[in-house]
Write a structure and sequence with these properties.
Elements (H helix, E strand, L loop, with lengths): L18 H12 L2 H8 L16 H13 L4 H10 L1 H7 L11 H13 L2 H15 L7 E10 L16 E5 L2 E13 L5 E8 L18 E4 L7 H7 L4 E4 L11 H14 L2 H11 L10 H19 L1 H12 L1
Parallel strand pairs: 1-5, 5-6
Antiparallel strand pairs: 1-3, 2-3, 3-4
Helix pairs in contact: 1-12, 2-7, 4-5, 4-6, 7-11
């Protein structure tokens, strides 16, 4: 229990909770903080000597999650914490007793997470937590990919674009950046597999990494057509429900179009994931140079997306436990 202070608004007679506060309250209740902090603890600096004590792991992890939810840079996170009481309450900061961790501290924590690939571990732990609460991966997988743009300007110190990012054409439009490939459970809409590549890697090239092997059905758009051999090798019991693909010389028949529409009713669930990623969390453009840093960001982002998608069920379980 956090101690009440004058900053909690006890004198604000007509105040009501904003949507941001309600969202942060819900996430505070459903996130398995102890398990996630336990994964970071072996790598976190230990207090030694007479120097400044390191900020607590959970507090830094909460700030890291705020950066994902509200699309904040390291200095932007520091500014937002000074500006927003809702964020300070979520992190547990009382400005009457202590300052907000500065942007260098936030940067160093992110670098520690990247150095030990802890984003991958957090993603795994969140999925274990969801499975323990009844959200198991079923036998159907939806695969898809989305382009995350990167700055294409060469007005920087190196006078060049990020060498690990590449361009690709979608329709008549060219894009420069990376691709987020995901495998999603068709029943629970839980992300169980994530791959980050440069944008010029075709969607079908990472299909084997998006399957868990126990599938009985696999859905995907026409980019995954013609991958029967990959499916047989990596998910031998899976039926191919990817979209039929027409060509310049062979148009789709009416029956194939009808089948595609039926498949789209299931396949469209993956768009809910990208809606949260790009519209709610604002991850439409990479923030860092290099594929590894952005892959780490993507893994943490997907872990938080899974929690948001399962929020109602987890809150219901939490209420039943408390009762």
């Amino acid at each position: 229990m956090r101690q009440q202070t004058l900053a909690d608004g006890s004198f604000e007679k007509f105040r009501k909770k904003t949507r941001k506060e309600l969202f942060l309250d819900d996430m505070d209740r459903i996130i398995p903080w102890q398990d996630l902090c336990g994964a970071i603890e072996p790598y976190y600096p230990k207090p030694e000597g007479a120097g400044r004590r390191p900020v607590g792991i959970e507090r830094m992890l909460r700030i890291h999650f705020l950066q994902h939810w509200f699309d904040l840079s390291d200095p932007g996170a520091e500014e937002a914490l000074y500006d927003s009481r809702a964020m300070r309450t979520f992190v547990g900061i009382d400005l009457g007793r202590e300052p907000v961790p500065d942007e260098s501290t936030i940067l160093n924590f992110r670098h520690l997470m990247e150095r030990y690939n802890l984003g991958d571990e957090l993603f795994r732990l969140v999925n274990v937590y969801l499975e323990e609460n009844g959200m198991k991966v079923a036998r159907g997988t939806i695969v898809d990919a989305s382009i995350i743009n990167a700055p294409s300007s060469t007005k920087n110190k190196d006078k060049q674009r990020d060498p690990e990012m590449h361009q690709t054409r979608k329709g008549n439009q060219w894009y420069f950046g990376m691709k987020a490939h995901i495998g999603v459970d068709s029943k629970s809409k839980m992300i169980h597999s994530v791959v980050a590549t440069a944008a010029n890697v075709h969607d079908s090239q990472v299909l084997e990494d998006l399957l868990h092997g126990e599938e009985t059905r696999v859905w995907g758009d026409s980019a995954y057509a013609g991958q029967k051999q990959v499916l047989q090798e990596n998910a031998p019991n899976a039926k191919d429900f990817t979209q039929h693909k027409g060509s310049r010389h062979r148009a789709l028949s009416d029956e194939e179009r009808s089948r595609n529409r039926n498949k789209s009713r299931v396949r469209s669930k993956v768009e809910h994931i990208f809606h949260v990623m790009k519209r709610q969390f604002g991850f439409t453009k990479v923030r860092y140079r290099g594929l590894d840093k952005n892959a780490h960001f993507l893994f943490v982002n997907c872990a938080l997306i899974n929690l948001v998608m399962a929020k109602k069920r987890l809150l219901r379980i939490s209420q039943e436990t408390c009762a």
